[in-house]
Amino acid sequence: MRQKIVAGNWKMNLDYAEGLALFNEVSDLIKTDITGVQQAIVCSPFIHLQSLAALAKGNIAVGAQNAHQNESGAYTGEISAKMIASVGAAYVILGHSERRQYFGETNGLLAKKTDTVLKHNLKPIFCIGETLQEREANTHFDVIKSQLVEGIFHLSADDFAKVVIAYEPVWAIGTGVTATADQAQEIHAFIRKEIAAKYSQAVADGITILYGGSCNPKNAPELFAKEDIDGGLIGGASLKARDFVDILKVFN
Ligand code: 13P
Predict the structure, then answer these.
(1) Which end of the chain is less enclosed by CB atoms within 10 A, N or C?
(2) How far apart are alpha carbons 146 and 19 in whole angstroms?
(3) CB 41 within 8 A of CB 92
(4) What is the pLDDT of residue 1?
């Protein structure tokens, strides 16, 4: 059985006190409402990480939203994987479309970031997804395949098994337009097929593939009912404790 995961990506929201309050609210709701073994992950800004990691227990873990590709050095303003691991975070989102779009992150750079993150025993939540133009030009399968091949298919099978993949169609992020469950399932099945061809069916069957893009408590049940959709990467709805935990509750 693949691990079911609902990860919240807070993006650049919430000051320190607001973040702690939201995390505590989420933890309390999880204690009372979640009866399954599904994993909740909160990916907060760096500012909150140490405090949240100290509070995280049971089926709630903490992750960062980015890490630098190099070990350390003269990179003013950057945060290393070693630093993230040292405060007790367990995951790092890599390759989010906002990082690709606004910070010029390429598949090649993300391959390096993935190696560095894994070296420090952090698990990457590796994001892939096509833009609207790419889907309209019918190149979405090629785009997804390149993101996989250039970003993470250099990994050994052992390392690859530590990766969580998130399919986030760029046109569905923060737009209120969700991919239909069938559209998402089609891509998730394609991703799993490519993993099976590169590694093995056993590796492919073990990889958790999340859907992200305007996911909310209303549409999550239909999305998560699909065979190859193992949970969600949640933006806006992760800023409301009730909504986030209701999405996690789909797996009860
Ligand atoms: P929204 O859920 O706000 O569309 O964001 C999705 C996302 O980018 C999660 O990483």
Answers:
(1) N
(2) 35
(3) no
(4) 80
Per-residue tokens: 4 = 């079911």
CA-proximal residue: ligand 1, atom 7 (nearest) = 235
- From atom 9 of ligand 1, which residue's Cα is the shortest distance away? 235
Phi-psi region of 232 (alpha: psi -120 to 50; beta: other; left: phi over 0): beta
Segments in the chain below pLDDT 70: none
Q: For residue 120, which of 146, 66, 169, 81 has the smallest C-alpha distance?
A: 81
Sign of CA dihedral 132, 187, 179, 241: negative
Is 187:210 a contact under the CB 8 Å cutoff? no
Question: How much is the pTM?
Answer: 0.98
Q: Reply yes or no on whether 168 is catalytic.
A: yes
Strands in the chain per DSSP E: 5-9, 39-43, 60-64, 91-94, 123-128, 164-167, 209-212, 231-234
Domain total for the chain? 1
Residue 149 φ then ψ, to 5°: -65, -50
Q: Is 96 in the active site? A: yes
Q: Residue 72 sits in a domain of what CATH number?
A: 3.20.20.70
Q: How far is CA 78 from CA 46, 191, 208, in A?
A: 10, 31, 29
CB atoms within 10 A of CB 194: 17
Residue 152's domain comprises 5-249
Residue 99 has a pLDDT of 98
Cα(236) to centroid(ligand 1), Å: 6
